[in-house]
Design brief:
The complex is a heterodimer.
Chain A: H1 9-12, E1 29-30, H2 32-44, H3 51-67, H4 74-99, H5 107-124, H6 127-130, H7 133-152, H8 156-170, H9 177-202, H10 206-224, E2 230-231, H11 236-243, H12 248-275, E3 280-281, H13 283-304, H14 319-337, H15 339-349, H16 351-356, H17 361-387, E4 389-390, H18 399-410, H19 421-439, H20 447-473
Parallel strand pairs in A: 1-3
Antiparallel strand pairs in A: 2-4
Chain B: E1 6-15, E2 18-28, E3 33-38, H1 44-52, E4 59-64, E5 67-69, H2 74-80, E6 82-85, H3 97-101, E7 108-109, E8 113-114, H4 116-129, H5 147-160, E9 165-169, H6 177-192, E10 196-200, H7 204-210, E11 213-218, E12 221-227, H8 233-242, E13 244-245, E14 248-249, H9 252-257
Parallel strand pairs in B: 3-10, 3-11, 6-9, 9-10
Antiparallel strand pairs in B: 1-2, 1-4, 4-5, 7-8, 11-12, 13-14
Classes of the chains: A mainly alpha, B alpha/beta.
Bound molecules: adenosine-5'-triphosphate (ATP) and magnesium ion.
Chain lengths: 474, 259
Amino acid sequence: MSSTTPETNVEAGALPAAPDGGFALDVEEKSIGDAVRGWVGKLRTGDPGALPSVLGLVVLGIIFSQVSDRFLSALNLGNLPGQGAYIAVIALGLVFVLLLGEIDLSAGTAGGACAAFAAVGVFKGSLDDGLPGFLYWALVIGMVCAIALAVLLKTYAGAAVVAVGLVLILTNLTQHLVPALVAAICIGAAIGIFNGWLVAKVGIPSFVATLALFLAWQGVLQFALSGQPINTSNYDLWRDLTYGTLSVAQSWILTIVLVAGFIGYTVLRSVRSKAAGLAHESLNLVLARGGAVAAVAIVLTYLACRDRGTFAVKQGIPVPAAIAIVLMIACTILLTKTTWGRHLYATGGNAEAARRAGIDVVHMKVTAFAICSAFGALGGVMLASSQSSASLDLGSGNVLLFSVAAAVIGGTSLFGGRGRPRDAILGALVIAIIPNGLLLRPSLGAQWQSVITGVVLLIAAAVDAISRRRAARG
Amino acid sequence: MADPILQISRLNKSFGPVHVLKDVDLNIYPGEVTALVGDNGAGKSTIVKCIAGINNIDSGEIRFEGRPVTIADPRDATALGIEFVYQDLALADNLDITQNMFLGREISRYRSFLSDGEMERQARATLASLSVRTVSSVRQLVANLSGGQRQTVAIAKAVLWNSKVVFLDEPTAALGVAQTRQVLDLVRRLADQGRGVVLISHNMNDVMEVADRVAALYLGRVAAEVHTKDTTTTQIVELITSGRSGELGLAQTVASESI
Ligand SMILES: Nc1ncnc2c1ncn2[C@@H]1O[C@H](COP(=O)(O)OP(=O)(O)OP(=O)(O)O)[C@@H](O)[C@H]1O
Ligand SMILES: [Mg+2]
């Protein structure tokens, strides 16, 4: 359409003046009371949000504080992020795919393989020499194919990311740790593009396609390592991804930047919308909420910055917590504030409606899978960090299933259309707190972990099912 | 009389062995309401989906404002300025009213950051102009709306955009008396603003009231395209049920062989 004509009839003034309409709930200015009522209303219409997972955390916390008085110690709680971060990161990526009603069972083992490539790169000094000959070329050709596929499916950002990885590999910059880890994430994106192509274009159900690849990547990982695990704890940065802490100054800077960013953004939005005559949140509401967030953040940061070490000084926000929080915020912005995110929710809610609205559904799926596998790769890197080793079974076993469970416990639906990045973080905390609490009482064997995790997942699913059924009955 | 804004000629469409549309000719004029009538399964919705770029056509020509156009994708139809209310509504249940109305054409800043406030304002203005009284918030999820409310949202979505042609596939099927009245008035108003409007309906009273022309579809063929003022309800019903009515309609041979 020519750009001179207004896009909508409201702009064109082609609609008759409204006789004062209804919209009783759409108040011009949303007060604190309106916000609380809105929240309660949501609970009652079957959208419990974060409530079940937060309650679950509290209940588990109370139980474990009875199991051992060390549970609530600063040292123990400070270790929790490191124990759950890899699950949180993989679950964050899974949210994108779950929102589409798809699943990626291969995210864990694909991530393990990506981390193994990084480990080989830095440990052997060259991927070309370090990998079995055929595998190096398979990797290079695979990445080239992924770039071609991405361009074909109009996923240019994905193609660019993979191209970066390819350059890092071909120039052997992967002998240095940071480029190697970046390359691992880029390889993850390439794997995800391939997954997305299989699902969206070839038409294989994602459960089957990624189940097959779940198995395949395990083998690739073992080829990559040539049967020898690689110790990662010698690389300071890699170890710090799990065991490091921000310095006290860095901790406060991070907290202040995030909190000020949140308050600044919400205040600005309120003031701007008010000036433009749009519905907006009252300044009281914005400041009250911002104040609550600030208070929680400051208390947590203060606690994190006290010395919790036994032998040496240990203080500051754990690096894995910082990574998880920053990624969660980035994903939330991507999903709720951008057109791409809106289109992802629409595609998951009703793919046909999305298609009719002109959304390229194939492109959405390919990008979602690419993001998922890229997060899987980062998760694999963090898992290697927490195990201090790129082991031969990196990312296999229960890793992926725990990550799916984390997303679901947090409130993400397996049927698509419903879920938030926040879910992944809260769910991962629930998953991680169980072994953490149990290990404090060695007489409670590891077998309890599986049983309790399973029961918690069932309860979460039941709460979800019951609240929706009650909402449907009205 | 003005030239047609949308001309469809010799449109054919098959689903596998089933030949659903047979040499369909249809002209849509600006400023007029064209009613598309026909029995269940006659192919009305299929015509709509072919023009929307949802179903690709086997053969035939579509001309828009005199130019031949190809519509291979829903975006092509939108770019031409054609809006649709689908029979199955095609709304995403997990999104709210505003999000559905702007789906695929969100207002954004810095290329891709959503301007939710502005979209809400326009959604509210559009719904208000339809005299919608029962929707309490444009932030309500579509999943929680009644059938009629959902239909209203689908109509509002089509009305929101400053289009040149609007197709409404049974837009009043789920609506109550008052809301049906509103939609019929709206259909008339859209045409009076110079748009070409296509109304698909099984209700002959509505058709006779608001339509300027009627195209009767019989087993995938256009039996006749007539001016409403030159015809009677009885004739239209005959065209719908048997493909012919006196002088009007398909030749006897064609009508029977299509069966
Ligand atoms: N996707 C499809 N695949 C196969 N057949 C189809 C498909 N869509 C429509 N048809 C067939 O095409 C014919 C016309 O269907 P269409 O939906 O256009 O009818 P209609 O005139 O809109 O009917 P109604 O008044 O019931 O809405 C029907 O026989 C239907 O079975
Ligand atoms: Mg139909």
